[in-house]
Structures are given as C-alpha cells and as structure tokens.
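Give me structure tokens for this 275-residue protein.
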Amino acid sequence: MHSSAEAVRADAGRDFWRGVLAAGGSTSMPRWTRNPIPGIAVHDAALPSELVAASRRLAEELEVPLSAVLLAAHAKVLAALSGERDIVTGYVAGTCLLPCPLTTDAESWRELLLDTHRVEAQLLSHADFPLHKLGRELDMTRPAFETVFDPTGVDVELGEDIVLRLGIAQRGEVLVLRLRYRTDVLDADCAARIASYHLTALELITLTSTPNTDSKACCLLRSLTSNAKGCLGRGVSCRRCGRTSSSSSGSGGILIASPLCAATPMAGRASPTGS
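Here you go.
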C-alpha cells in the first residue's frame, strides 16, 4: 500500500512538472548598466513595519502564507521589467530551485494573490520530485528564468545563469528584501530601483487598494513617481502610457513596457537605451 501511494505521488509529480516544462516560456532581466563589470553585489531594503503588518493582515484574510503576497509583488515587478504578463521566476523550496510560472493577468489583486498562492502550493507539493532528471529526459536543462525568489532567506551565491536573487529575511524585528545581483547586468542604482519596485508593488497590493480593486488599472511607474521618494535615479518611461519619472536625470531614459499600465500596449521590451 505504501509503495502504491508513492507511485501515485511520483506519477502526479511527473505529470505536473511535464506540464510546466512543456508550457515553456522564459523571462529575462533587462540589461541595466552602462558600465558592465563582472562581479556580485548586494542591496538590502528594509520593509516598513506598517507595510509588513498590512501584508500579514491581507495574508491572514485570504488564508495564504505571507510568501504568497511577496511572490505576487515579485511577479508584478518582473512583468513590468520584462513587458510580459506571464513570467517565470525561480523559486527556492528547501534545497531545490524550481521554475515558477505565474500570470499577472488577473482582474483584481485578490485574484492575483489567490492565483499566486495556488501555483506556490502546487510547486511545494511536488518539490521532492527529481525535476533535473525529467529535464534531461525532455532535453530541457537550461533554466527558463534569470531571477530567483527565495522565501527562506538563506544567503547563498548566485547560481549559473541567474542575474538576480531576491531573498526575504527576518533581521530582528525587521523584514528585509535582499537583492543579490550581477554587476555586469545591473548597476547599484538599478538594483535600488528594483527593490523600490517591490516595495511599491506591495503598497499597491496591501495599502492603496482593497483586494478586489482592479489590478490592471494602475501604472507601476506612476505609483513610483509619486511614492518612491527619489529612488528612481535616472529617467524611466512607461512604453504604454508615456509617463516619465519626474526624478529623471542624465541622458537616455529607460523604457518599461509595463503590464501594470492600463494604456494600450506598445511593441518592444524593456531597454536601457529606450530603443
């Protein structure tokens, strides 16, 4: 009976991961540095206590873990950076690094959070399946993502092909976002901007709207311009609504084809040169 149950579980895991891998899709980070120097750097951003409290209240209300709220914000940020509504990020589950496909095309924040929680729960339920073996069988050995979401807060080095690792760690009374990134892809200002994007996405989810508020009827850039307290550095423009950061400086703005913007989509991906 025990072996039969294990076989059923193994078959379910194989079917689940085969579907994930067969669906394909990949998400790349924009190359946001004008002086690419090989190396690794770290940026820490403390979450304001009121934002953490609001995130915990929302998680309790929807009966989801706090990690689902943070993962939903991460998905929104990746969608804004890549210009794609469907994204793939890495997800750390114990010692496993799993592909986590998410959609940001939900009609409301509540739907987005519940969809994210459903995917997260499915990943965790099949985390012990030998995914690397299935990947070799299907000739899919390269990761479909350049970013990693790590709810465990374990501070480890970036893996091969990983550009950005977002860790969530408790430091005493403070919850901290830790971004570990490659300096030949992102510079310090852009890493700080991406951290700010995550804070603003959390604010949009937990503080400035109710869970049923339309998650599409806002532009991440517009919110950052009004809320980010000068963290944007150089100019950033939304390719959909044309809004530009008021804190723009220097030549050559950065364009974001932001799926969070309700304006009509335009062609192209995020670009450091605006081309």
